Amino acid sequence: MYRCRDCGYGSLKWLGRCPQCGQWDTLTEFKRPDSHSPPQALATIPLEEAQRRPTQITEFDRVIGGGLIAGSVVLVGGEPGIGKSTLLLQVAAQLARDGPVLYISGEESPGQIKLRAERLAIGKTNNLLIGHEQNLAAICEHVLQTKAAAVIIDSIQTVFPAGESAGLGTTHQVGQATFELSQLARAQKIPIFLIGHVTKSGDFAGPKAIEHLVDVALYVEGGRESDVRVVRAVKNRFGSTEEIGVFQMTEAGLREIANPSQFFTERLGPVPAGSVIVPTLEGTRPILVEIQALVAFTRSNYPQRRATGLDLNRVALLVAVIEKHLGAQLSGEDIYVNVAGGLMLRETAVDVGIAAAIVSSFKEKPIDGQTVIIGELGLSGEVRRVKKLRERLAEAAKLGYGRAVVPAGEKLDLKEIELCPVHTIREAMETLGV
Ligand code: TYD
Ligand code: MG
What domains are there in the chain, each with its CATH number? Predict the structure, then answer.
């Protein structure tokens, strides 16, 4: 059967011009798919309990929702050099404990992968098969022949679909390769991981282009200056996209940071002015982090405003709120604000903390190291409520903090930590003694 690409008109023989819409050369052959599965009534469909296979890398399992689902495709995106190959080689070694795992690299030679494996101390893993291959048909053949229980493709941008003449890295090529590999995953009932490079230049089709074709899309993030790596789910058909996994890139691969709060707030020596501790929420998980501000007088007509790990626009807004409602004169000051450890904070619940760090540095008065600060700031200087206050406070108490500045109006009776409810930015700064 032939069908018009434009209007959908169907004809049994090919026609140069569509009789319905009048377009030329739009009729293309259309094979009716053999349907083995007629529609079913919703009520009669059996409930399938998805089997999850944990990788035993706790931080990774948390992000994927507890474990891998057979037949699923997991995309792992990130900038070059961030640690995607390292992470998945570690995952592969774990999975190889219960069956053959195939690691296909189109970028690196088996020798290079062996070197990396030696660094990760998994060089002697049995059952981990390394292939250097770019041809999709050949990759599928290897999967079938090795009876692989899991497959890693490093990277999807280097896979040539069968009979494809288009260049490597085009949207069409990565889309086609992803589609065919997901068919393979379902048919073989095995998980397949696809590594995808995010490039700034955009001359390669990035992982974004295939997110809709995969079951789970994860991104590995981290700053250039920091060795902290955060694995974040942006899509998960089998779980929440709320969770993150926190790792540190070490000499021997990615190490799980099981207690991020402790890791991000480790302070040696006395607390300097401009440093505060805020309980932030990453997914459902409260994590304590240190925010540092440096406010320094400048003669420049254009004072610097810089933020690392925070949204610069938000910082600019908070500076305006401080000027307006505290009467602080910051226009002649360079302002730098930093999240220690390289985490990126995206929530407004750290507003009061940021403001306190700036004011503390400006006045050169340190804030008590045993106090945490929670609250969003409104434009009129009011301190607003945040979600999951109790969880944030519990985390602070767990790490031994004794006092918390919190938005007024919450009814919490907590014994573990002393609460200082505040209504406005002015009250907050008075309570903090800055
Ligand atoms: P890699 O996994 O190759 O990144 P990607 O696949 O995302 O491009 O990791 C790249 C960086 O990580 C590289 O600069 C070296 C560093 N690294 C370590 O610091 N420790 C290690 O054990 C390994 C394997 C890599
Ligand atoms: Mg790589």
Answer: 1-32 (no CATH), 52-257 (3.40.50.300), 263-432 (3.30.230.10)
